[in-house]
Specification:
Mean pLDDT: 76
Oligomer: single chain
Strand content: 5-15%
Shape: flat
Helix content: 55-70%
Number of strands: 2
Order of helices and strands: HEHEH
Low-confidence stretches: 3-12
Radius of gyration: 20 Å
Structural class: mainly alpha
Number of helices: 3
């Protein structure tokens, strides 16, 4: 049992040391922006304009990068997640 625990612990430590090397870019970076999807509850052009202003504000205030989209319907928003 002790050998199993030591082996499992060693395997876990090895896995944790490798994961950061193969992980994606940090969420909110330019290469991996935070994605925000708006449901098309009103005119899509209105949402697009307002979301653009909102994204600029969020990037300025947080220092993170965001990407927004207005899918064609609510189901597309759910599928995007």
């Amino acid at each position: 049992m002790k050998l199993f625990r030591r082996s499992l612990t060693a395997l876990l430590a090895l896995t944790l040391s490798i994961v950061p090397a193969i992980a994606e870019d940090k969420l909110g970076s330019e290469d991996n922006p935070i994605k925000i999807f708006f449901t098309p509850s009103v005119d899509a052009s209105t949402i697009t304009k307002n979301s653009s202003d909102f994204i600029k504000y969020m990037e300025k205030e947080t220092g993170l990068y965001f990407k927004s989209a207005v899918p064609s319907n609510y189901i597309a928003v759910v599928e995007a997640f």
